[in-house]
Amino acid sequence: MNHNRTRDAPDFLRGVVIAEYGDGLAGAAATATLAAMGADVTTVPVQDSLLRRRVPALNADRQPVSVLSAVLDADKTVSHESAPAPMVTVVDRCEGTGPLSDMPVDDYLDHVDRENGAVWVTVSPYGLTGPRRRWRGTELTIAAAGGLLSAVTDGRSGWPIKLAGNQALLSAGQVAALATCHGIDEHTRTGNPVHIDVSAQEAVVVTGPLLRVSNLLLNSAGETGARRYGAPAGYYRCRDGVVRISVMEDHQWAALVRAIDAPGWTDLFADGQARIARADELDTNLAAELAQWSMTDCERRLQQEGVPIAAMYSADDLADSPHFAARGALRDIAAGATSLRTVGLPFNVEKSASPTRQKPAGLQGLRITEAAHVLAAPLAAALLGAIGASVTKVEDPDRLDIYRRRGPYIDGVAGPDYSAYFAAMNHSKKSMAIPMSRDTERLARLVAESDVVLENFGQRRARRLGVDAATLLSNRPDMLAVSSSGFGYEGPWSAYRAYAYNLHTAGGLAYLTRGSDSRAADLDLPWADLISGIALATVIAAWAVGPNSCSGAAVDFSMLDLVASRFNEFLAAAHADIEGAGPEDASNHMCPFAPHGVFATATERQWVALAVWNDEQWRALCTTLDDPAGLTDERFASARSRTDNEPQLDRALRDTLAGANAVKLIAALQDAGVAAAQVMAPEDIVADRHLRTRGFFRPVTHPEWGMRRLVGVPWRIVGTPAFALGAPPLLDLR
Q1: What confidence tier does 556 reach under pLDDT thresholds 50, 70, 90?
Q2: What CATH number should be reported for the domain whose range is 17-218?
Q3: CA 255 to CA 257: how far, in whole Å?
Q4: Coiled-coil segments, which residues (predicted)?
Q5: Measured in whole angstroms, how far is the alpha carbon of residue 243 from the centre of its chain?
Q6: Cα separation of 728 and 152, whole Å?
Q7: 675 within 8 A of 141, measured Cβ to Cβ
Q8: Could you give the CA distance from residue 431 to residue 394 in angstroms, rounded to a whole number?
Q9: 21, 125, 369, 402: least buried by Cβ within 10 Å?
Q10: In angstroms, rounded to a whole number, what is the distance separating the alpha carbons of residues 578 and 583?
């Protein structure tokens, strides 16, 4: 497909010079985000780093080149010498390698104290403080420790499995990009060197099991997951594919009934509670109804009626998506003689030609008006509020946020100030109740006093209220106006309704995340919303701290673009017909690691995630386990032979570890230099001594429910306490 529209790159960070060391995936992802927004990034590659051994790979000049590394380096200068003197230094100590990545923690901290003249950002598996600060971490073990593995299960075995690709480390990188903007702001404001400590484990908690962890912290009970608010909510097979439907409101159910010509059985499910209580029966009837439809017809017809639905698209489909083409989202990157098709930054930006006032003074006191509901945009505003912005959430009494209106509720007390999910997404901000359609003057006054407006109302309502990004920029050319939506405000799918679960399906996550039998895995968390919250906050922070924030801009942010971009190596490989385009890392297998998986132990409900990437670590693993006979097989003697015989290796390890004590085993393996971690459930995260020692769960005092703890900001400034959070605001309708 020709995609003749191109996406303008923002220059928010033009003039910011960054050096990247360690050649690890998280650091590379962080600097890729910053480079795409205008920063001048130099990366120093390391031969045979894990990043450059990732698959899929292409052959360039007779050497294998990781598609993912080529994508992440596209906007950087790649230098085999030291990088020029930077304003910002980014070091990856997760899967990174080299002197800075391999240095003992205390020596490393001393080195940063001596060398840092401006901003230094360290991404490490568990942070630079706490009991696990010396532990190793990889994509799999960080996903395990951050609770992401426990949220995804193999449909056949019920075992925990990883999301396709490298989502734990990419999330750590996205958080590090936001934290870098915060570091720039602190250095600019104080003139002092700033060392930012990013914990990959904490980044994964914030972009994974955040809602379930918040439930436990706030003592809230009730249904969680996709069916807590409505049904039907699940996958349905059509004649030639699969769709995901998420009906959360009665008007959406009525729209679905119209779309399928109101068969008689639908009369049994007119009430929302009846649909939830009899969800299995409803699913059986609906599946029979949709079985004869084509996948794309089903998506189109139901969306035309206003039903949140998405077809399950493959990497091939996404690389040739007409929606992405119309939005200018597709980007071709040259890798030697090969052109790699990718999805670029997840937003379109229109820049103001004539700013009318001076730039805001960074993040501290940045005046943000949040006209948003549910999750992604409120999370972005909460994080920015926690690091210094002044955030006002506009609440319309006529259309309250669904998180205000529904549980689960703190202590089981129903009411708009007791919603656990609202509390988790809306700390560190003020609230202003404005009936927006009836009091447009008050809304206009608030907007006039703002540096930034962030909205996710949907384009029809936003335009009617005059708060969409394009309208705001035309009236206020000096401000940053951000509109966030599932599919963006431009493109043929711009009017489509979406929840996170639909975006997982449309954006490649559902297709690519496969269990051991190649069936799509069961994923039950609003991942698209959570990663979008971090990305939105990064856009706003980059504009606020960069030298070009004196120029206003309108941002059209698409959550679908972001989800698809997280699988760019698969899109690129599929479009270029490179081997490895499909879900080759099905279950927990991932090149170049072997063994690489999750194993049950003698400890009830405690799985151990292991990742070994060289023969030295393999020998350390065997020694720690007292060289069991099952692991001395000649087929496991080398990294190549272990990869070739991975199913047999997994069976041997399962037998060996079945009688092990999980806690003792993990500690012994880490002492031996082998990456290992417990697959943490939300209950384990809340009780985790390491996270509590780091102050990850922050106290807030609310006038209704008193002192509780909320999930905090997943980075620190070295030498200072974790950031304080403000209590979620009361709903004041006076």
Answers
A1: very high
A2: 3.40.50.10540
A3: 5
A4: none
A5: 22
A6: 30
A7: yes
A8: 6
A9: 402
A10: 13
- Percent of the chain scoring above 90 in pLDDT: 81
Which tokens go with 591? Answer: 């090149």
Residue 670 identity:
Q
**Two tokens at 133?**
């600060």
Q: Which residues contact 695 (CB under 8 A, 6 or more apart)?
A: 712, 721, 722
CB atoms within 10 A of CB 193: 17
- Whose tokens are 């734990």? That residue is 168
Mean pLDDT of 107-125: 98
**Half-sphere exposure at residue 690, Cβ-oriented, CA atoms within 13 angstroms:** 21
Q: At what angle do helices 615-624 and 662-671 cross, to 10 degrees?
A: 140
Q: Which tokens is 390 given?
A: 């002044």
Buried-state track 498-510, b at ≥16 Cβ within 10 A, e below 16: bbbbbbbbbbbbb
Q: Residues near 241 by Cβ (< 8 Å), separated by ≥ 6? A: 294, 295, 296, 311, 312
- Other beta carbons within 10 Å of 453: 27
Q: What six digits make up the tokens of 283? A: 């699913």
664-721 pLDDT tens trace: 999 999 999 999 999 999 999 999 999 999 999 999 999 999 999 999 999 999 999 9
Its CATH class, for the domain covering 596-680, is alpha beta
Conformation bin of residue 449: beta by default, left when phi > 0, alpha when psi is -120 to 50: alpha
Q: How many residues appear in the chain? A: 734
Same fold yes or no, 17-218 and 347-503+513-568: yes
CA 573 to chain CA mean position, Å: 22
pTM for the full model?
0.96
Architecture of the domain spanning 226-311: 2-Layer Sandwich (3.30)
Evaluated on CA atoms 185, 186, 190, 193, the torsion sign reads: negative
DSSP annotation of 634 reads: G
pLDDT value, residue 269 = 93
Class of domain 347-503+513-568: alpha beta
Query: Which residues are bridge partners to 341 per DSSP?
Result: 332
Q: What is the mean pLDDT of the chain?
A: 92
pLDDT of res. 3:
47
What span, in angstroms and rounded, lies between the C-alpha atoms of 150 and 373? Answer: 27
Type of residue at 490: E
Task: Give the lowest-confidence range in 55-69, 350-364, 634-648.
Answer: 350-364
- pLDDT band for position 5 (cuts 50, 70, 90): low
